[in-house]
Amino acid sequence: MEQSISNSGWRNNKWIRAAIPALLLHCSIGTVYCWSIFSQEVADYIGHSKSATEWAFSFAIFFLGMSAAFLGNIVEKDIHKSSLIATICFAAGMFLTGVFIRYGGMHKGSPVALIGIYLSYGLIMGIGLGTGYLSPVKTLMLWFQDRKGLATGLAVAGFGAAKAIASPIMQSMLTGLGEGGIYKMFMILAVVYCVMMFVGHLLLAKPAGWVEPQDKSQKPKIMQVLKTKPITNYIGIWLMFYINITCGLALISQEKSIVKCIGLVGAAGIISTISSLFNAGGRLGFSAWADTMKDRNTIYKLIFILSIAFTALVMITGGIRNGSGNPMLIFLVLALIFVVNAGYGGGFSNVPTLLSDHYGMGSISAIHGITLSAWAFAGLTGNQVATYIVNHTGAFDKEVVDALGNVSMVNPVGYQNVLIFTLALYIIAFLLSLVLVKKTK
Fold this sequence. Notes:
- This protein is mainly α.
- It is about 75% helix and about 0% strand.
- Strand 1 and strand 2 (about 405-410) form a beta hairpin.
- Helix 9 runs antiparallel to helix 14 (about 325-360).
- It starts with 13 loop residues before the first helix and ends in a 6-residue tail after the last helix.
């Protein structure tokens, strides 16, 4: 039986025992999305190309999804063990990333430094990401059973908002720490996030009165649970989730360059922050909205319709290619960026509640974990496919100059062509939501 929690005071407060620890965990691990901010600095410091260092982020997302898939049963059985694993792995991975960056600075071009970063930021941090992402979700749904979407949206919004919160802090640290600031930043933040996550680990608890099955042998296997509905139902949910992440990563990975293309070089940082807020807002807003609906899958249909509409508008008008100096096209491109970010976030926050509506709460952590494998594969395909399209279509023939006078070349046609890829996938996802994912009764 689950250990009983006192019915008095803070020990039985859903905000202290679920919401706050979830935010502490997710606001820490969500900083994985900050990699794009300093990947160039890492590359320059260790003497490798930016494209080589970007694989660290792809590996982190891959191992996030795979660790969630394989460790979901641990989360199901013991959230204290899983949240402690998350704390140790995330903080250790971040600290070791700093160690290998420092080594790379002392041995320019060393493959040891690059492999060390892949293992630290990718594998070790990835395990922390997967277990940390899953640990609070079921607990939140148990505490907020009447508003499950709002609860999970609140926590997952912390994951989305982490970049907006941490970005300016990291930028100031890179400047203020002087020589070697890039590796010092990782080491300092590793300690900060370790403290935050450990506090979250200590506070996190399921509500008093919640009883786990005493005889684990009587608990149905995951496949038995999934087969309570036609298996195509789950396949549809998995594919919708995968496509939404793939399209989101494809556009978000090119966001900074797209903003440069439409003549907003000086506002790139502000736009990145706003898009992060849309990401977080989509996680909270779409999931809270879904609480009012009979069928949560309706939210995915709305996300795909909005994404298709704005992607098509920018494609038809050639917004990225022709946007510079045209206020209407600039508005359309920015609207596309913000809508995709909101839909990307909303897709994450609605998955656990959609799964619980279809398959119940009994094995939700394990089922949610397996579903996050879609995130793992999307992490290896979304930004990589977008980069391939940009590098192999069009040409880097447009020169842009930032406020510091730095000159860079962008490929308007290539970024525009990425939209062909995402539009096709969004249409497929919408059809899947209509055909395969059945209404809950």
